[in-house]
DNA sequence: AATATTTTTTAGATTTGTCTAAATTTAAAA
DNA sequence: TTTTAAATTTAGACAAATCTAAAAAATATT
C-alpha cells in the first residue's frame, strides 16, 4: 500500500511523461511544490519499490506497475469529478481541489460502485477520458474542442449540450455538424478560442468550446 | 487546519467521552492502535492548540472548539455512510472503513451539497443521529430497537422498512405499533435480540431490530 | 499506612517527507 | 575545447508521529 505522498508523485510523473519522457527532477519539484532535493529522495524510494525506473541525472519513467497505479488514481480523480458535477452540481472549475483529495481513497468496491452509479462515464467534465479498472482508455472518436491546441484541425461531430439556446447560438456562428475547423489562437485570459472556419476567423467562449465535440 | 491524525484523535476522544469524562490515556491508546506514550505526546499538542483541556495524569476533555471539530467529522462520517448505503448499495456492515477515510475530506461545499443530495438525512444506516452543520443533533423522538441496551424499555412507534413480508412478520410476532417492549438479552454471536413483550419472551434477528423504531 | 499494581509520563530513538547548503554532473556558450 | 551556467544529487538537519524502556504518579491491596 502506497502513502498519499507516493501516490501523488506517481500521478504527477504520469502526467508529466506525456510531455517529456523521461521526466526531469525539476519538473516534478515544480508540480509537487517541493524542492529538487526532496524529489531525488522520493525517486530513490519509488525506485526501490520498483514503481519507477530511475537513472541518476537522467530522470524517471514509470514501470508497468507504477503506471497502473498512476492510472488508477487518474481514474478515481475523474470519476469523482463526474460525481461532483453531475450529482452535486459543482461547477467544472470547482471540482479539482476536492477531487485531488478524493482520488486517494482506496476502496475497489467504492470505485467500481461509483463508476456504476455514474453509469460508466467515458470522459470527465473537462473532456478528459476515464480509464477502465484495468487501465485501458476507450479510444474516443471525438474530443472536446476545448482540448485542441493552436493549429489543431478537426471536424465538428457532435455537442455535449443540447439546449436550444446553445444550438441556435452554434447555428448562428456557422458551427454545424460536419464543418471543418482549425484553432488559430487560444486566449489565456478567459480561455476563449479563435477558430478558422470557411476561411473566416470567429471567436467562441470557453463555455461554448467545452460543448463542441471534434473528430480529427 | 488539522492533520488527519489530529482529526482522528479528536473524533476518538469525542466518542469516548460519552462513556467516561475526562477520557483516559489508555482508552485512547487502545482505540488509536498506538501506545500510551504516543497518546501523551499528542494530547500535549492538541492542548497547545486549545482543542482539548488536558491535565497530567487526569485525562482530557474536548474544548468547545475541539468538540465542534469532532462533531463535524462525525457528521461527515455519517453522511458518507448514508451515501454508500443509499446510493452505492453498500451493505450496512461494509461502510465503516471507507467512511473512516471519507470523513477526512475537508470541503464545506462538498459536505453541504452531499447533505442536500441525500435529502438531509437525520440518521445514518446504523440509526445514529447526524448533526447539522452547526453541530446540533436533532432530538429524535425515536431510536432503532437495535440501539437499545439490555433492560432498556420503550414503545414501538414506527418502522424503517415498509415491505409487506416484513410487516407481516412483525404482525405475527405481536410487534405492533404502541406495544411496550423491554430488551432482556442481546446475543453477541449474531446480534439478535430477546424481548419481553406481553409478559412473553420472543427473539428477533438483528435485521428485524434494525427496522423497528422505539420511543422511550 | 505501607506496599504493590496499574496508569501515565519522560527520555531518547526511529521513520517519513521535507529542507538548506554544498558538491557533482550534464548541457550550453564562448 | 574550455568555461560558464543549469540541473541534479549528497550530506546533514528538522518536524510529525510513532516507538521502547525507565521513571513518576495515582490507585488498589494487604
Question: Helix/strand-derived class of chain A?
Answer: alpha+beta
Major interchain interface with per-chain residue totals = A-B, 19 and 19 residues
Tell me what the CATH architecture of the domain at 144-215 in chain A is: Roll
On the 0 to 100 scale, the average pLDDT of chain A is 92
How does the major sheet of chain A shape up? 6 strands, antiparallel
Q: If helices are DSSP runs of H or I spanning 4 or more residues, what is the number of helices of chain A?
A: 8
Q: What portion of the residues of chain A fall into strands of 2 or more residues?
A: 15-25%
Give the N-to-C terminal Cα separation of chain A. Answer: 40 Å
Question: What would your notes on this structure say?
Answer:
By secondary structure, chain A is an alpha+beta fold. The mean pLDDT of chain A is 92. The first copy, chain A, is globular. In chain A, 42% of the residues lie in helices and 18% in strands. Among the domains of chain A are: 4-62, Orthogonal Bundle (Arc Repressor Mutant, subunit A); 144-215, Ferrous iron transport protein A (FeoA) (SH3 type barrels, Roll). The N and C termini of chain A lie far apart (40 Å). The first copy, chain A, is built from eight helices and eight strands, in the order H-H-H-E-E-H-H-H-E-E-H-E-E-E-H-E. In chain A, helix 1 crosses helix 2 and helix 4 (64-86) packs across helix 5. In chain A, the strands form two sheets. A six-stranded antiparallel β-sheet of chain A has the order 3-8-4-5-6-7. A two-stranded antiparallel ribbon of chain A has the order 1-2. The first copy, chain A, has helices at 4-19, 25-32, 36-48, 64-86, 96-102, 108-117, 164-173, 206-209, and strands spanning 52-55, 59-62, 143-144, 153-159, 180-186, 193-197, 200-204, 212-215. Chain A binds chain B through residues 84, 87-90, 94, 97-98, 101-102, 105-107, 109-110, 113-114, 116-117, and chain B through 84, 87-90, 94, 97-98, 101-102, 105-107, 109-110, 113-114, 116-117. Chain A binds a DNA duplex (30 and 30 nucleotides) through helix 3.
Amino acid at each position: 500500500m502506497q502513502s498519499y505522498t507516493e501516490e501523488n508523485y506517481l500521478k504527477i510523473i504520469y502526467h508529466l511523461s506525456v510531455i517529456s519522457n523521461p521526466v526531469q527532477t525539476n519538473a516534478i519539484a515544480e508540480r509537487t511544490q517541493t524542492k529538487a532535493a526532496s524529489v531525488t529522495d522520493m525517486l530513490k524510494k519509488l525506485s526501490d519499490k520498483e514503481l519507477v525506473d530511475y537513472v541518476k541525472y537522467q530522470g524517471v519513467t514509470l514501470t508497468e506497475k507504477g503506471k497502473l497505479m498512476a492510472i488508477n488514481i487518474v481514474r478515481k480523480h475523474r470519476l469523482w469529478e463526474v460525481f461532483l458535477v453531475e450529482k452535486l452540481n459543482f461547477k467544472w472549475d470547482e471540482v479539482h481541489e476536492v477531487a485531488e483529495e478524493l482520488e486517494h481513497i482506496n476502496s475497489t468496491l467504492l470505485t467500481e460502485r461509483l463508476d456504476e452509479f455514474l453509469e460508466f462515464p467515458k470522459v470527465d467534465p473537462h473532456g478528459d477520458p476515464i480509464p477502465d479498472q484495468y487501465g485501458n482508455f476507450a479510444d474516443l472518436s471525438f474530443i472536446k474542442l476545448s482540448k485542441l491546441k493552436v493549429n489543431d484541425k478537426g471536424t465538428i461531430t457532435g455537442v455535449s449540450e443540447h439546449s436550444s439556446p446553445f444550438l441556435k447560438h452554434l447555428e448562428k456562428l456557422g458551427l454545424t455538424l460536419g464543418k471543418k475547423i482549425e484553432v488559430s489562437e487560444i486566449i489565456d485570459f478567459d480561455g476563449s478560442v479563435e477558430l478558422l472556419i470557411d476561411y473566416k476567423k470567429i471567436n467562441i467562449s470557453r463555455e461554448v468550446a467545452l460543448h463542441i465535440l471534434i473528430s480529427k
